[in-house]
Structures are given as structure tokens and as C-alpha cells.
Amino acid sequence: MRVLFISNLYPPYFLGGYELACSEVVHELIDRGHEVLVLTSFSHVPAPLESEYINRCLELRCFHPLGTDAKFIEYNRFEASCSNLQNTYEVSKAIRRFNPDVVYCWNLYGIGGLAIVDLLTMVGVPWILHLMDNIPGLLLNQTAPKIHAIFSRENYDIFRDARIIAMSAHLLSEVYDTTGITFRRGVEIIPGWVASRGLLVRSTYQCEGRTRFAMAGTIEAHKGVDLILQAAAHLLRQGLVNFDIDFYGSGSIDHYRSMAIGLDLCNHVRFLGERKKSELLKQYQNYDVFLFPVWEREPFGIAPIEAAACGCVPIITSACGVAEQLVGEVHCLKTERTVEALAETMRAVVCRQVDLPRLRQAVVALVRSDLTIDRCLDRIEKVLEGERRNWDQSVLNDIKFPLLIHTKHYFARFLASKVEAINTE
Amino acid sequence: MLSLAQALNATQSSTSLPFNFEQTIFSLGLKAKLFVQGGIPTRVLPNNNPLGNPMDGTSELLWRELLDYDLIHVHQCLTVFGAFCSILAKTLRKPLILTDLGGGNNPVMLRGKGLELADGILSISNFAYTFVAPHFTGLCEVIIGPVDTDFFHIGTTTNRGRRIAICVSRILPHKGIDRIIKALPPTLKLRVVGHVYDQAYYKVLKQVSIGRDVEFIHDADDKKLLALYQSSDLFLQGSSIRDCNGNIAPKTELMGLTTLEALACGLPVIVSDGGSLPELIQDPGYGRVFSTHDELMSHLDDFICGVWPKYTPIEEARAYVINQYGYSTVGARLGRFYSSIYTLCNN
């Protein structure tokens, strides 16, 4: 198959699991003999020369490491969610030249995603949207309905009729809650995965009576960093000192380091910065427990299953996406998202009231069977094959097609500027 | 728009056209409605943008509704609504015809070349065509009218004098009613028929009417309007691109329909050179055009003195309108234009 990938970000610059998962699927499909082209945005992160199948021609209007000048916020919001003319053009050009069997869309926020899916629909090329976040909500809720109706059609039909892969039912609930969208063609739920081949598994726990916790992800409140620090402080107040917590990732590290100092956690907490995924996977076997008190809207949570694959038992928020896959007290420990609840769960672990080896055995078995990249790729490949059909390029060859794209973009911009003017008044 | 649709409907039974047309008019309003007027089903869809200018309305329901049609003719194509409908039509890959009726000036459709999305443009006069010509390179047809010549007809009393003139127009500065009143001879009575859209201008008109025989009629329905045409001796229209306040109204009189109605009622007409008005007057026997106050004075003198017209050209004027702008002529031309665009897009 010839598969055209579209993703706002693609490693080496990445924010989280979404774009990493995209790159893993790209590599796996290439390994399976498929022909691939990736359209994505510029990456400033130093890296070896990239393969030719990666084309960084898309403009990104968000997720800039240094933020955005306030005067461009409205403009960028429109271009990020609704329409970026250059990106729409680049996608149309790529479709014409690459002539894909299927277009595989990942995170489209930041690159004018609505206009891109509108383009794919107009052209008639089969396309699939892989949801690892609430992309319909992000794209639709940034602009007024009368503006995005130009692209999204009546009642968001452009998404309702799309072929969807989603990583959790929890995520689909969020899409529904924020947009009212249900997907008419059904949804393939394919969870996050782990490339678990060759990973070592932790065998002994709480060596020398000390519990080693790890957390990996963006060092921000929504990932539960505040909760972890405050829960750790609870443990100290109860006289429990035989634990360490290591944080991996970038974000508001200075803020949380100060917070840790204020909570007298200096001897228990370390912020170790960002690590390559391969490095992290090697590190997890050194920890007893993976802390994941993430916000409830977390679509899935790949980090805890990666940790689990190495025998690092997860403590997760009861209502987040990954909780669909892991059974509490069988594969993991589940907790409500409060300091007290998390502290109590951590206390039980530190006090050796939890049988970590038993949990490890179950979760490793689960992750290394159902949640492997091979298993998930089989299912992805099947969905791609299912969508594949004959289509022709007649729309792309219509000499007025670029004008239609242009008119839609500028008409939407025209409406957006009117809305802005009304809001300013 | 309704008249065009009716003209096409009326023509289908009597003229052989390549296709049979079923038409629906879509419009926007506060609530959904369906009714039939003049034999044409009219669907009113709820406006997604009810605040502000009604021309700025949109409705996402059009995505579904337009799917059922083979050809889409968007009137008021330079408004937000017009641009929205044009975009939807072409996204759905429908043959698209556009018409500017004078509303809006959407930059996306003009400088942005959105007009070029159309497969054809129908202009309501040669003058109207000059506004779209710089922005469109495809097929264009100029169709003036139609006039409902069954309704607008010569009255039973044909013994007309030279005493009463009529001006039928919205009361707005660019309509140049002040020009007419200022040139009015003492022996000629003027009826100004139309709603007031500009109170300040109306006040000016009242002021210049002092000492002249001018009657303002604001409540004329179609029946009363017909009676007023039929009981008048001369039709006057003074529209101007530059109004009495010095303001420019470039699209004044894209199509001077009231002039054609008057002719259909057998009236001689004197009209300004504003907008499309001169192109409606093809025979000096029943129509004259003026540019300046002096020219208008001179034409009115000729009328009062019986120099012009030499005789009352009732039948000629009416025959001209029926032949050129009547329902069957316009309907047939419209049907042929629709057919040619449809054929072009489907080959």
C-alpha cells in the first residue's frame, strides 16, 4: 500500500506520545513493505539526516517552544485549527504526486486540520483519522460554527462520516461531550502499544526496604506532578522516608523543584530531564512503581504501559484512558485524583501492603500480548486495507480546484475577522 | 429572482427547451418555512447568523439541501450568503451560475477571484455586467427583466393627456427624485410612489416640492401601483451615480425595472443616464434620456408642448417590453442559458 501520513509534529521534535506513535507506525509499515510519505512540520531538534519519505513542508501554528506573540494569537488559532492555505496546497500536491491508496491523518491541530480533511473529502481519496487526542474538538471548538461549517459541512458530517481509529472509548466520550460527534462508520479502538521486544523485566522489588517511584511525561500539573509531590509530603509527615521519586521529562521543572524544596522533599525527589524513549525503556526496570495520577481527560497514557512492560507497576488515575485496558488490583493500582487518595495508595506500597510481583506478573503478560506494537499494527494494517479502494484524481485535475481551496480559506478568514471585530466591540 | 423563476416556469410549457426544469428558491430567515409563491416552492432555512446584516446569513443545512440539485443559481453573489452558497455549490461539484443584484461587495468574490468559481454569470443588464466583467472570464449572459406584462398592462382609459407624471422609486438620494422635482413644469403634476428609506432625503424632497404639484404616495400595493401607472401620462426616473449630497452610488439602477413596468403600461418615459436606464430605451419614439437638468427641462418642455412624443405610443411601448423583457422571452433565454451551462459542466 501507498500510505500518506499527515502529522503536525514528527520526531525528533515531539511533545508526547501522539507523534512518537505516528513515527513508530511509519517505521513498522515500512518494515512490512508498504510505501510511505510523511507530511509534517519543521523540527529544530538536532538529528541525523532524515529519510526522503519525510517531507517537512507543513507550517505549524502552535506548539512553538517559545510561545507566540500575543498579536498573532487569533490569527494562529485560525490557521492552526481551521485553514492554512499553504498546508492545504502542500497536501493536495502530495496527493497528486504520491497518489496514495490511503491518507492516514494523525494530529492535525496546528496545521489547519479542518481544511485538510475537507480537502481529502473533496478529492475523494480514502482517509483515516487516528485519534490519540480530541482532534475534532480541538479543530472545531476554536472557531465559530458558521466559519468552520465551510469545511466541516452540516452537523460536522466531515468527521461523522470519517473512518476513525481511537485509542480509547474514554477519548470517544470526550469527543462526544465537546462536539456531539458520534462516528457513523464505527470506530476501531486500538490502544497504545509497546515495542516490548528485548526489554528486561524487573524481578525484585523494594530492594533494601526502599521503594523507587518513577514518573515520565510533561512536567506539568495535568500529568499530576503537583499531586505526586504533595502526596510524597504526606508520606513524610507520616514518618515514611524510605522512598525516592524520579521525574523524567521537560516542562516547568524550576517551578516543581522549588515546590519540592518547599515540601522538604529534596532527599526524595529528582528531576532528571528528558530522555529518549529507548533510554527510558531501559530505565523503567530500575523502578518499582510508575506514578501516573494524570488528569481524567488523558486519552490513554502510553508511558504507564511502557513502564509496565518492564515490570514497573503503574498507579493510575481511575478514569483515564489507559484504565480501560488495565484492571485495578490485577494489573495496576487505581486511584482517585486527589492528594489523599494518591498518598494512601503510595503509602500502601511503601509499607509493603501491595503484592507488587503479583501485579507485575499480570500486567507484563497483558502488555506483552495485547498491547504490543505488532498486535496493534496488525489491526492498523487491516483498517488501512479496508479503506483502500479505487479513486481517481479528477477533482485534483480540475483547473478551478486551487481557486476553490483559496476561496474557502479566505472566505473563512473574512468571516473570522468579522467575528473578531464584533468581539472587540 | 422570483420573477426569473416564474418566467422559466411559464416558458417551459410553451417553448421547447433541452431540459425540463424543476426549481426551488432557498433563502434564510429566523425560522424554517416552506411555501409556494407564483408556482415556485420556496424554502426558508434558519439563519445560523441571525444578528447583524441579513445578507451576512449562512445555513449549514444547505450542505444537505443543495445535494439534490443539478444546477445552482446564486443571486446576490457578492454578499456573505452568496459567497457561502457558491463555495458549497462548488464543493459539491454542482454547476454554478452567479448573479449580482447589487447587494454586497465581498472582497473574496471580487479581488479574491471567487467569482471565477462560477461556470457562468447571468447579469441583469449590460451595466450590471460591467461590474463583474473584470473579475470573470467565463460564460456570461445578460438578461434584463422579466416584466410581468400580464399584470402591468394598458388601462381601459387610453385617452391620455399631458398632465400627470409618475416616478416610482424607493425614496433614497441616489434615486435622483430631487432632480425630477426641480425640473417639474408648473402644468405637470408629479406622483412620487415609493417607501421612504431616508428621512433626511424625504425632507429635502418635501422642501423642493413647495410651490410645485407633487404628491407622495407611500402605501401603494401592486394593484394601486398599476392603477397609478395607468392613470398617469408620463414616467420619470432620475437616478444618478452621484446623489444630491455628493455621495457616489456606483451600482445605481443595475436594472430599472419600474421603467419597464411603465412602458408595459404604455407610458412614454424620460429617464436619466444613470446605470442601466439608457439601455432600456431603444426607441426615441417612446423614451428619452437626459444627463443634465437642462436636458430634462428641455424634454419636459417638449412633452408639455406636444412636441414629444408626437402621438401617444401606447402599443409600441408595450410591444417592445413584451418582446424584449416579457416572461416568455426571458424565460426562454434563461432556460437556454441554464441548459448550456449544465451541458458544459457535464461533458
What would you call the structural class of chain A?
A: alpha/beta
* CATH homologous superfamily label of the largest domain in chain B: Glycogen Phosphorylase B
Helical content of chain A stands at 40-55%
Helix tally of chain B equals 12
- For the record, the CATH class of the largest domain in chain A is Alpha Beta
- The largest sheet of chain B has its strands arranged as 10-9-8-11-12-13
Shape of chain A: globular
CATH architecture label of the largest domain in chain B: 3-Layer(aba) Sandwich
Number of strands of chain A: 13
Give a quick rundown of the structure.
By secondary structure, chain A is an alpha/beta fold.
Describe what you observe in this structure.
The complex is a heterodimer of chains A (425) and B (347). With 425 residues, chain A is an alpha/beta fold. Chain A has two domains: 2-193 and 375-424, Rossmann fold; 207-371, Rossmann fold (3-Layer(aba) Sandwich). Chain A has helices spanning 17-31, 73-81, 85-98, 113-123, 135-140, 145-152, 157-160, 169-179, 225-237, 253-262, 277-283, 302-309, 339-350, 356-367, 373-387, 394-397, 401-424, and strands spanning 2-6, 35-41, 54-58, 102-105, 127-131, 163-166, 187-189, 211-216, 243-248, 269-271, 289-292, 313-317, 333-335. In chain A, helix 1 (17-31) crosses helix 15. The longest helix of chain A is centred in the C-terminal third of the chain and has 24 residues, at 401-424. By secondary structure, chain B is an alpha/beta fold. Chain B has two domains: 2-146 and 326-345, Rossmann fold; 164-323, Rossmann fold. Chain B is built from twelve helices and 13 strands. Chain B has helices spanning 2-14, 62-65, 80-91, 126-132, 177-182, 199-209, 222-230, 257-264, 277-280, 293-305, 314-325, 327-345, and strands at 25-29, 33-37, 40-46, 72-75, 96-99, 120-123, 139-142, 164-168, 189-193, 214-217, 234-237, 269-272, 287-290. In chain B, the strands form three sheets. A six-stranded parallel sheet of chain B has the order 10-9-8-11-12-13, with helices on both faces. A four-stranded parallel sheet of chain B has the order 4-5-6-7, sandwiched between helices. A three-stranded mixed sheet of chain B has the order 1-3-2. In chain B, strand 9, helix 6 and strand 10 (214-217) form a beta-alpha-beta unit. The two termini of chain B are 28 Å apart. The model of chain B has no long low-confidence stretch (mean pLDDT 94). Chain A binds chain B through residues 118, 122, 145-146, 149-150, 153-155, 157, 395, 400, 403-404, 406-408, 410-411, 414-415, 418, 422, and chain B through 48-49, 52, 56, 58, 60-64, 80, 83-84, 86-88, 90-91, 93, 106-109, 112-114, 116-117.
